[in-house]
UniProtKB/TrEMBL annotation:
Coiled-coil boundaries: none
Keyword match rRNA processing: no
KW DNA repair (keyword) present: no
UniProt name for this protein: S9 family peptidase
Organism listed in the record: Microtetraspora fusca
One Pfam family this sequence matches: Peptidase_S9
Region (Disordered): 48-68
Family matches, as InterPro entries: 6-blade_b-propeller_TolB-like (IPR011042), AB_hydrolase_fold (IPR029058), Peptidase_S9_cat (IPR001375)
Key words, A-Z: Hydrolase
Domain Peptidase S9 prolyl oligopeptidase catalytic: 435-639
Amino acid sequence: MSTVTPELIVDGAIPRHPMISPDGRWVAYTVAAYTREEQHPSSAIWVAATDGSSPPRKLTDGRSRDADPRWAPDAASLFFGSDRLTRGTTQLHRIPVGGGQVQALTTWKSGISYHLPLADDRLVAVVAADEPTDEDERRRAERDDAKVWGERVPYGRLRLLDLDTGRLRVVDGLGDRHVVELAQRPDGGPIAVLTWATPDLDPVFPACELHLVDPETGKVQDLGPAGLEASGLTWWKTDGSWHLCYLGTTPPGPVGGRAVFDLTVPEDGAAEEQRNLTSGMTVCPSGLAQVADGPPLALFADGLDTAIHRLDAETRRFQPMSRLDGYAGLMTASGSGDVVAVVASTAYEPRNVHAGPPTGRLARLSDTRPELRGIEWGTQERLSYTASDGLDLDGLVILPVAKTRQDGPFPLITLVHGGPYDRYADQLLLGMSPSAQWLSTAGYAVFLPNPRGGEGRGHAFAASVAGAVGMDEWTDIVSGVDLLIVDGIADPDRLGIGGWSHGGFMAAWAVGQTNRFKAAVMGAGISDWGMLLATGELGVWDAGLGGSCGWEGTGPHRHDRLSPISYASRISTPVLILHGEDDPNVPVGQATYFHRALRRFGVEHEFVVYPREGHAILERNHQLDVLRRTRAWFDRWLADPTLDHA
């Protein structure tokens, strides 16, 4: 029987970017290390038969970052991005699927950020910023690096790569718009293009726009604005008309669940008004897959599970085809739609690539974590319960390893997910921020709630936290904790709480609302919503959660009532604060502010900042530290007082 250690958790690999060949016979995917020991991450391209008739094959050696495989039109080769020429700068490469030499197709100084092989097999659409000019090089040499807002913006521009000549031709008609995503019409027609105003989605005036580009002439046709956080451009055809659909945040936004929006693409002129194809559904779309020219397939987060739906062309509504236990994401489909592939995980199985018919069972193809076999996990149970106002909720509870309910009550740690638009699916929960199964090996029961504001129960459920974070979602969590106490699972005198990002906010919020928790872990958490609007990369999204902006007047402001820092004088619970020093999403000042407040009021706490880290902790030694430090913190404060620990 293997033992769960921090090293076992972080020294694994994870599959990403699955892409099925047009004929449905093969799926290519990336296998990336879970952690990063060097400055630049590494990953490899693999390919597997979708029917499982042969074992997966590793196409690239994985000594550099090889990622984002896409099939050539004849499926004989794969295009992919790699920094094997210059570490840290991605160039376009190609490799024969049957094996052979990797060919570098670009040496663009600024690198390639996106690529899409076109139906004309002589062309590949790529996105790349302009190369440095002589003036840029002079300024760099003279250390003239003053950052002037709006100047020298590295827009990702659409360029067409001629494979015969190696020349890159820029598409001029998009102007100074940053290209984010591309999708060519399945008949080889125009390319749908999604753009932003700047390379970073504007935190004050976010604006996504849609365009069409003729790959032969470079002519650009504007289709108008797209919804917030638009992604997943997908073509389909009905009654002789082409449609374009995509995922976006439901209006009025910016807080709310994702929806599938659809527009009829005209031959000339402006597009028609966009239609929400998922309005009124109590599940949430998480991915789209194009099926030649027919109606698209879609993945839906459905409570603790995932479902595959197909769009009905007549009713313009999605109809369920099959249900998958636990988590599934990143769906890709063959041209006929008869075969799909996803990355999936269930309660005791890690994420792997699975493939099969969309109406039936999907078979596992990859095996990225064989070292996890033979481990005894804590028993993972599904919970259904009711909020204080009668709303139906769900979540998970993991019992300590080798224990049953009859062995309780146990010390209970509540781990709140990020987002808040996210969820706990019934999958293997072995991450590091913090890790549920890792804590279960130390004798803890772990509660994983899905409070309102999250994914999987429709728009109204997700949008209910707009301007109200920490309110009803907090009572949803408390209701679950109280249920586990009544059921004899949780020891009311040994409760802990923690989380990362929005989960870190909820941990900081909890200790200012109650002293029931004996220990808390605030990972990359928000302490002040007003300051987050001023410094975080999401801007108006954070204002939508906090409910107001500091520039709206002298106050009082709603975001002050919803900020954990406002309740610091009430806190008595020991808090472990963990944060990445270079976090652009929740800047480290949020943690520093909370740390200073806890010092001011004499609260026991520990403040840890990880150099070089962003919102997610990536370096191996730092990940190991998070795991060890988190469990040691809970061990320190939640130990059984009846036992002699001398």
